[in-house]
Amino acid sequence: MPRKTIKRKTIKVDYLARVEGEGALKVVVEGGRVKSAALSIFEPPRFFEAFLRGRAFTEAPDITARICGICPVAYQMSAVHALEDALGVSVTGPLRDLRRLLYCGEWIESHTLHVHMLHAPDFLGYDGVIDMARDHGDAVKRGLALKKAGNAIVTLVGGREIHPINVRVGGFYRVPTRRELAPLAESLERARDDALGVVRWVAGLDFPDRERDYTFVALRHPDEYPFNEGHVASNRGLDIPTSAYDDHFEESHVERSTALYSRLRDGSGAYLVGPLARYALNFDRLAPVAQEAAREAGLGPVCRNPYQSIVVRAVEVLHACDEALRIIAAYEPSDRPAAPVAPRAGIGFGATEAPRGLLYHRYRLEKDGTIAEARIVPPTSQNQACIEDDLANYVEGFLDLPDEALRHRCEQTVRNYDPCISCATHFLRLEIERR
Amino acid sequence: MARTRKPRLAVWKFASCDGCQLSLLDCEDELLTVAGAVDIAYFMEATRGKVSGRYDLSLVEGSVTTPHDAERIQDVRKRSRRLVTIGACATAGGIQSLRNFADVAEYASIVYARPDYIQTLATSTAIADHVRVDFELRGCPIAKHQLLEVVGAFLAGRRPVVPPHSVCLECKLRGNVCVMVAHGTPCLGPVTHAGCGALCPAYDRGCYGCFGPMETPNAVSLSGRLGELGMDGRDLTRVYRTFNANAPDFRAEGERHAP
Fold first, then answer.
1. A386–chain B Cβ distance below 8 A for any pair
2. Beta strands in A216-301 (DSSP E)
3. What pLDDT score was predicted for residue A7?
4. pLDDT digit string (tens) for A182-195?
């Protein structure tokens, strides 16, 4: 029987499930070709960049945390780094290590949530983790235990797992003792074994064979797999300090989305941030145990298949468990919980690696420390163009699938990015159009 | 014997950060038990499976900020036997209710190049401003143990036990030293609803009111003391205008000091 010719077909998902926030997608196929692919973000705007104006700089870590309940630590970290840059404060030694430890906790928690609850059900054919747990109970329980180990770090160091209360410009309000951290090390030993198990588990999933030559953008640090600090780098030779971010990246506003689109100003367009980019640019900085697990999982030092991002996330969880154990083993509490901070006028820049990718903040402060201007570029708005390009490029190869399976495949393609739509919408700002 | 149908649970999102619904997924030890006791019929952050129709318990996160959401909450109410709001956004309008004290058109022009693409209301309001609410759970974010209490109470057909007293009492229960008395650190604990377990004072910082006002708070008196500790009118307005800025008691006290 001759294959039925597809004339025109529209695949719509009106409300994407298992992402953080509200989004929809629409792919138009004409004559067997993808004519357009659009991710619409209809999350209501919350105007953070507007109401940050007139607030005290000391309030920014608590306020910006509320942009995203999934990655509040990332917002707090980018905020404090940008503000410390503006105020000429440098946070070093045990306070810096504690920040890295806190970030490890968020990576473990957030990635484990995505791997088990949001992404794995796509590969295994379930609507969600609860259904998946019926047949894969042990894997789900291991995931929950691992997630709990990450949350335990954030709870101890940050005060609570969602919207931590212990982060401030200059450091913390109170630092834990060695004795308080000791039980974390016990649970993390187990978590590191579990994380290795998760890498092996996800490596065995069935991945569509799809690759593109992405422009990867991530932080790169001289010695560390990046959390808090580093240059903004790409696999195409970009290597700039955070203060030059706005010279190289721009955002634009399209009608269908309350999130902005980021692109490179040099005309190369869409780029990718997040686990695949971090991994490709920093494989040599991963803990040996994570490098070995990645190789065993069949990954090279660069992975260009976004469906395998689930494996890279698992490798990063393993790295974060190992790094957290290293930090705890070497930890000596700081004499004071925070470096002294005095208000002054200035502009500061900060970029850190949220679980979903590069998160950029810029603040301009008045003399008394009041915020005059704030700018925040979250990872999902940076990935938005890349997600649409993936849909446009990959969906053609899936057109033989029946409609429901095809729709599911499109959703999975979006979920490869662990998009956080709450983040993407809640600020997103762009340049003023002048005519 | 006919099998009794499990109660249907739905989780809805309005303008929010997703953190309160995440609290349910953060119940690592209890999640599978909860999932066994109820039929999770609508929870977009967790599953693409949907059961349409009516729900026995709806948990609502987020505030109403768009014309579309103002209609959607009416539909959610009609389809829900019990409706519980979870968190400061749903219960008091959230941090995004700071627009209520400003010009939203100006806000949109600060954030967006094309404000004309943006559909938004001039205010961010609590769910109870739009529909009848059976119970309001406070916090930015909510406390996990209180969420489990609310779901458990619903399953047992009783009122949730969520004490309405101030954070001060939680400090006493926890054995914290009072940060305001001992260190002169400004603290909203005396006027803030309990639920966090006096978290901030336990970390040597003053409470910043993320659970919103307690029942009948004496904010005027507290503001007097905060003034003695060095806070001026602008500082006082700021401390009441955060995550529960539009809760009536905090709103009134913030307005009283607004420059």
1. no
2. 217-220, 231-234, 239-240, 249-252, 261-264
3. 65
4. 999 999 999 999 99
Q: Is B237 exposed, middle or buried (0-12, 13-18, 19+ CB in 10 A)?
A: buried
Residue of B nearest to A49 (CA): B111
CA atoms of A197 and A318, how far apart (whole Å): 9
- Please report the pLDDT score of residue B49 as a whole number: 75
- Looking at residue A16, its pLDDT comes to 67
pLDDT, position B35: 87
CB of B97 closer than 8 Å to CB of B123 = yes
Q: How far apart are CA B18 and CA B20, in angstroms?
A: 6
| CATH superfamily assigned to domain A48-426 | Cytochrome-c3 Hydrogenase, chain B (1.10.645.10)
Contact A20/B at CB under 8 A = yes
Side chain identity at residue A157, one-letter code:
V
Using CB atoms within 10 Å of the CB of residue B211, give its burial: 0 to 12 exposed, 13 to 18 middle, 19+ buried: buried
Instruction: Give yes or no for A404 touching B (CB within 8 A).
Output: no
Q: Spell A77-87 as b/e; 16+ CB within 10 A means b.
A: bbbbbbbbbbb
Q: Which residue of B has its CA nearest to A55?
A: B238
CB contact under 8 Å between B118 and A258, yes or no, is yes
Q: What is the pLDDT of residues B162-176, one digit of tens each?
A: 999 999 999 999 999
Q: Average of pLDDT values for A60-80?
A: 96
A303-348: pLDDT as tens digits: 999 999 999 999 999 999 999 999 999 999 999 999 999 999 999 9
CA B199, B201, B203, B205 torsion-angle sign = positive
The domains found in chain B, sorted by start residue, are 8-156 (3.40.50.700), 167-257 (no CATH)
Segment A240-279, tens digit of pLDDT: 999 999 999 998 877 767 677 889 999 888 999 999 999 9
Alpha-carbon span B138 to B196, nearest angstrom = 10
Rg for chain B (alpha carbons), in Å?
A: 20
Q: How far apart are CA A339 and CA B45, in angstroms?
A: 39
Chain B residues touching residue A254 (CB < 8 angstroms): 117
A151-160, A226-235, B18-27: which has the minimum mean pLDDT?
A: B18-27
Task: State pLDDT tens for residues A350-387.
Answer: 999 999 999 999 999 999 999 999 999 999 889 989 99
Cis-peptide, bond into residue B141, ω within 30° of zero: yes
Nearest-neighbour CA in chain B from A300: distance (Å): 32
Q: Tell me how crowded residue A309 is: count the other CB atoms within 10 A of its CB.
A: 25
Q: In chain B, which stretches have pLDDT less than 70? A: 1-3
User: How far is A156 from A182, CA to CA, in rounded Å?
Assistant: 11
Cβ A161 vs Cβ A148: under 8 Å:
no
3-state helix, strand, coil in chain A (%, to 5): 50, 20, 35
DSSP-assigned states of every residue in A120-172: HHHHHT-SBHHHHHHH-HHHHHHHHHHHHHHHHHIIIIISSSSS-S-EETTEE
